[in-house]
Amino acid sequence: MSAHTTACCCLLLVAATVISARAQELRIEITADGHETVVFQPESGPGTVARSGGGVYYGDAPDWQNTLRMQVGGLAVADMNNDGWLDVVVGCYSSQSYPPYPDWENLIYYNTGGQLEANPSWISADEVSTGDVQIADFNNDGYLDVFAANGGYAMSPSVIYFGSAAGPSTTPGWYSQFPGGAWTNYAMPFDWDHDGDIDVVTANQGNSTSDPYRPMYGFINNNGVLATVPAWQSSETSIQNFLAFADYDGDGWEDLAVSKWVNFQSGIYRNVGGALQTAPVWTTGDTGSDKGVAWADVDANHEPDLALGHSPTRLYGNTGGALSLVWSSQASYFGHSDLRFCDVDRDGDPDLAEVHFSNGQTHIYLNNEGTLDSTPTWTYDSPSVGTALAFGDINGDWWPDLVIGYSGQPCVVVFYARPPVVHGDLNCDGSVDFGDINPFVLAMTGAAAYYAQYPSCNWHNADCNGDGAVNFGDINPFVSCLTTGECP
C-alpha cells in the first residue's frame, strides 16, 4: 500500500476525521471497532506478493476474488449446506468510512465442486454492523449455524442464523440481550463446561467516549438452547477484541485468552471445573494495544503457546503452565486486524498468519522445527486495508487455502495452496526411486491414507500420467519413471 497517514482515534473523533478527509478528497477507512482510521490517496491496481519464501505455496496473485465493495468484519470457512465442500461466510460492518459503503449485509459464497460462486447466493435479510462471524451447531440439529457478532454505534444485538439442509436461514432466529447493550467485536463458540453443547463468549466495548467499556459476556447453552441473556461476565470492564480457548495449565479444562485494546492488559481467564473465573489468572503486564490472540503448540512440547497481535507480534512460550515471551516479529510495521495459526506447509507444526489494517499486508511466518521465522516468510501487499483471515481447503486438494477480507473492492480474495508437483516422487526426497514404491501404492488407496503417512508431501505426485487423477492408469507411467527417470 502506498504512503498514507494512520491515526488511532476515539469514537467521537471519527466524524471530524471524515469531514476533514472529504474536504481534501482523500479516502478514509475505519475499523469495525471504530478505533483506527486510515487516510490515504485512492489506489488502483492489484495487490502484489512482496515476499515469498519456500514452503508457502500461495501464488503471486489471488486465484479467486469477488467484485463487491464492502467492509468485511469477519470470515469463516465451513460446509454450510452439507454438500461436502467448504463455503466462505462473510460478516460485513458499517462505519463512517468515506466514500460511504452503502451495503453491509452478511454473505455466503457457496462452493460447487471446488469453485466458489461469483456472486453470493446467500444474503442476510437483516443489515446491521457485524464485526465477526463464527460457525457452530448451537441447537444440536446436525446443521451448522452462523453466529454474527454485531454492534456498531447502534449496539445491535448479536444474532444466530440457524442452519438447515439447504443452508442457514437468511433471517436470525436468536437475538442476544446484553445488559445495557454492547458493541460486540468478536465471539467464541466453545463448550467450556463440557456438557456437550456449544456456549458462547463475546468480546465487547461501548459506543462512545462517555460509555466506552463493557465486560466480556458468556452465554450458556443447555441441551441445544443458547440463553439470550449472559450468565457470566468478567469483573473488569474494558475494550476487548479477540478470544481463544486452550488448556494452558494442563488441568483438563480449556482456559480463555483475550486480547484487549490500549490501557488494558491482555490475559488469561482460568477455567476451573467448567466455570470461568471472572478475573484473569495471568496478564501480559503491558497496557499497550493488542488485537488478535491465538493458541498453538509451536515448539512441540505438548503445551499450547500464546500469540498476541502486539507491536511487534509476540509469542509466549508455555512450560508447565508458565508463560514467557520467547519470540517477537522483526517485521517493519504492525497494525493487526486478525491473527491465526495454520499449518500452511503441512509439515506437522503450526505456522502463524496475520493481517494488518493500515498497510493492507498479510504475513505468514513459517514454523521451522519449533521456531517461527523472525521476519515474514510470505507477504501479500494489498491496496486495500486488511480486516480478516480464514483458512480452509476450498478446492478439495487437502491443502489449506487462504481467505483474506478487506474494506474495499474486492472485499474477499482467496489464494489456493499450490504445492509443486514432482511426478513419481511419493516420499518427497527429491528423486524417483524404489523408495517411492510403497508410498505410491498407498497413494492409490486415496488421499486420506496417503496424507496420514506423508502429510507434507503432495498426493498429486502419484498422477504420473498427468491426467489430473490418481488411478490405475498411473501404474505404467510410474514404472517408467522408476526405470527411465522420464516422468510427465
Written overview of the protein:
By secondary structure, this protein is mostly beta strands.
Which SSEs are present, and which pair or pack?
Blueprint: E1 4-8, H1 14-23, E2 27-30, E3 36-40, E4 48-52, E5 64-65, E6 70-78, E7 87-92, E8 107-109, E9 111-112, E10 115-116, E11 122-123, E12 130-136, E13 145-150, E14 159-161, E15 174-175, E16 183-190, E17 199-205, E18 217-219, E19 221-222, E20 225-226, E21 232-233, E22 240-246, E23 255-260, E24 267-269, E25 271-272, E26 275-276, E27 282-283, E28 293-296, E29 305-308, E30 314-319, E31 322-328, E32 336-342, E33 351-356, E34 361-365, E35 367-368, E36 371-372, E37 378-381, E38 385-392, E39 401-408, E40 412-415, H2 437-444, H3 447-453, H4 475-484
Antiparallel strand pairs: 1-3, 2-3, 4-37, 5-40, 6-7, 6-39, 7-8, 8-11, 9-10, 12-13, 13-14, 14-15, 16-17, 17-18, 18-21, 19-20, 22-23, 23-24, 24-27, 25-26, 28-29, 29-30, 30-31, 32-33, 33-34, 34-37, 35-36, 38-39, 39-40
Helix pairs in contact: 2-3
User: Kindly, what is the distance between the CA atoms of the first and last residues, rounded to a whole number of angstroms?
Assistant: 40 Å
Q: Any idea what the radius of gyration is? A: 23 Å
- Count, helices: 4
Strand content: 35-45%
Q: How many strands in all?
A: 40
Shape: globular
Q: Label the structural class.
A: mainly beta
Poorly predicted regions:
2-23
> What's the pLDDT, averaged over the residues?
93
